[in-house]
Amino acid sequence: MSAPPPPPTLPDLDSGPRSFITTDQDHGGIALTISTLMATWVVLCFFVRIYMRATVSGPFGMDDIVCSIATIFGVIQMIVSSAAVSFGFGKALELLTEAQIDQASKAVYAAQLLYIVTNTLTKCTVALLLARIVFIKSRVYACYGVLAASVVWGVGSFLAEAIRCTGSPPWKTVGSQCSNLFLAWQVITAFNVILEAVLLAVPVWLVWGLQTDLMRKFTVVAVFWLRSPVIVAALIRIHFLGNTIGSPEPLLRGVVPFILLNVEMHYGLMAATMPTLKPFVGAFNTGWGTYDTTGQSGYGQNSSGSYAMQSLDRRSNKSKKAGSKQNSALRSTDRDPPSFSKNITHIRSIPVRDADSPRAQSAESSESQQMIIRQTLTTEVHYEEEEARRRELNSSRGNDSIDYNLHVKQQ
C-alpha cells in the first residue's frame, strides 16, 4: 500500500516582494492604503452622482460642476499623498536621507494645501445644493451666505498654511519650525467645524416650516447630517496633530493626523453626493417648497403668510392642441342625455418674468407669481340596460336608442 500524500503546504505569508512592510519604524503603507481606498470610493460616488443627475434628479447644476472640480482636486491630493509615502513619509528619520526627508516634507505640505482646496469646494457643493432645492428667496440668500463664508474660509486657510512663517521654508517639518504652526491649524479647524455645523443646521431650518409629515422632514435632515463624521475627524485630527508638531519623529508620528485628514476630506466629498440619490430626492417631493421628482417644483410659505401653489410647466402648443380636442368633444355633448358631473378646481401658479420667453412658465426662473385657475370637468353618463328604460328614453327624446359612453375633460 502506498503512503498517503503529504498535506499541502501553505505559502509563507512573510515572504515575497512587497511594496510596504509595516513595522514600528514604518507606517507609510497604512497611510497609502487608506488614502487610496478613500479616493476610490470618492470616484465611485462621483460616477453615481453623474448617473443620477443624467437619469433621475437632473438637470446638471452648478453644484455638480463644483463637485466635479472638488473630485479632481481630491484625486490629485491622493496622488500627492502617495508620492509623499514613496518619498519616505511614515518612516523613522534614521531610515531616510536628507534628500528624502526634504521631498517627503514638500509632498506633505502640498497635500495639506490640496486638502484645504478640496474641503472648500466640498462645502460650496453642499451650499449650492441647498440653494438649488429651495425656492424661497430669503432662504436661497442664506445658502449663498454659507457659500461665501466657505470661500472666505478657504482663501484664509490656504494663505495661512501657504505662508506659515518667513524664517524657514513653510514645508519644513524636521528641525526648526514655525512657532505658530499648531495655532494656525487650531484656528483653521475651529472655523472649519463652525462651517460644518452651519451646513448641518441649514437643512433643519429649511424643513422646519414645511407643510409635510415628520418622516419626510427627518429624511431630508438625516441625509445632510451624514456629514457629521467630518466634524469628528477634524477634531480628532487636531488632537493628534498637537502631539506631532515638535516631535523628534514628525514623519512617523504624523501618519495618524494625515490619515484623519484624508478621511475628513474624502468622506466629505462622498457625503456631498448622498443627497442626490433617488431615495432622498423622493423625500423632497412634499409639494411645499421641496424638489419634485416629476420635474415640478413646489413652493413653501412666504414671509407674508400666503402660500404659493405647485407650479405648472405647460407648453403653449400642447395647450392649443388639447383645447381644440376638448372643444370638439364638448360640441358633441349637445345631444347627450342628462349626466352626473363633478367639478374640481385647482389653483396653481405660473411664475412670470417675460411673456414671450419659453422659460416664463418655469418655476426655476420665477420673479413673481401669476395665479391660474385650472378647472377639471368630469362628466359621467349612466344608462339602463333594460329594454323598458331604453324605450322610455326614446319616447322622451323622440329619437333612436343610443348608448352613450362619454368622458369630457375641460382644462
Automatic annotation (TrEMBL):
Q: Where is the Rhodopsin domain?
A: 48-281
Give the transmembrane region(s): 30-52, 64-89, 109-130, 142-163, 183-208, 220-239
Q: Which domain of life is it from?
A: Eukaryota
- Residue ranges annotated as coiled coil are none
Q: Residue ranges under compositional bias (Low complexity)?
A: 360-370
* Entry annotated with the keyword ATP-binding: no
InterPro entries given for it? Rhodopsin_dom_fungi
The segments labelled Disordered in the record are 299-411
Keyword Cytoplasm assigned to the entry: answer is no
| Keywords in alphabetical order | Membrane, Transmembrane, Transmembrane helix
Record-linked Pfam families: Fung_rhodopsin
Q: What is this protein called?
A: Rhodopsin domain-containing protein
Q: Which organism is it from?
A: Zasmidium cellare ATCC 36951
